[in-house]
Amino acid sequence: MTDRRRINGPVGTTAPPVYDTPQGKRVVARSGDNAVRKIFLKTGVTPSASGSAYLEVEDPVANRPSGTSLKLTCTVHGPRALPRSAPFSPHIILSTHVKYAPFATRQRRGYLRDSSERDLGVHLETALRGAIIADRWPKSGVDIVVTIIEGDQNRDSLEYDRDEGWDMMNVLGGCITVASAAIADAGIDCVDTVAGGVAAMVAKDSKSEPTIVLDPDVAAYHKIFAACCVAYLPTRDEVTNIWFKGQLPSSDAMVYHKLVERSLVACRSANRVLVQALHETVRQGQNSQNPS
Q: Residue 167's closest CA among 231, 115, 220?
């Protein structure tokens, strides 16, 4: 029996009314295909965690109230001893958890992880496992929790449904970078800082030829043919994870290698921001210990 005195909301998802004409694809003024959006990264944002970090990517259309930018936060809990019932492990047990906030995207997310969030967690674990020195902490575990506060999407686009699948590449690249900063803030030994970078083959309009761009703003292009997200250790020159999505033209056999090489350029750019943020954290810690 239904409650007649209560006004129940709709069962499915809804969108607020818009009294303006949607502008569709947004035009982003970028200096070139090799330009990477600015990144803000700060560590130590969650005092209760062993390590934490916050990452935000520059909004390319900041003068529009509906423009969105990628915002991520990461907390690291551990290393801590495994329960006695757990089997012996000679190395640290890494557990990653990636979750969208319910309000992060236009399609409201549930409180339970879906398949896309589980895929992001698997790729993030693979990327970080190659950087952490796992045998330093036997019989120990560490939990890495990444919360996506705001996704990298354009909510005004008429072709929003087609854009939604490609933004996961930028989300994964940001997850890798912010998790690496949080791990370093927690004092966990790593062979190198790992950074994530994305490159994509896009068409700017219906008549242009496909080109490879760095850090693609999904809503700014007419079509995306393929995208590649790479987790990279710059000092060791090693790749810990590659996630490729899409189809490449068969006429050029080297286009896949070009796409990966461009992704490495984006990784090096993100790593410079990561190293600078860690240096700033160390400098603040030294100043707090020596106030004079």
A: 220
Question: Does residue 82 register a pLDDT over 80?
Answer: yes
Query: Do 130 and 237 meet the contact criterion of CB atoms below 8 Å apart?
Result: no
Token duo for residue 4: 């007649």
Q: What is the largest CA-CA distance in the chain?
A: 71
pLDDT digits (tens, 9 = 90+) for 17-47: 666 655 555 555 555 667 888 899 999 999 9
Which residue has better confidence, 127 or 223? 127
| Residue with more model confidence, 4 or 179 | 179
Q: Nearest to residue 49, comparing CAs of 76, 74, 26?
A: 76
pLDDT in tens, 258-273: 999 999 999 999 999 9
One-letter amino acid identity for 127?
A
**Model confidence, pTM:** 0.86
Burial (CB count within 10 angstroms: exposed 0-12, middle 13-18, buried 19+), residue 11 = exposed
Burial code (b: 16+ CB inside 10 Å, e: under 16) for 133-172 equals ebeebebbbbbbbbbbebbbbbbbbeebeebbebbbbbbb
CA 147: distance to chain centroid?
A: 10
Residue 17 has, within 13 A of its CA and on its CB side, a CA count of 1
| Type of residue at 47 | P
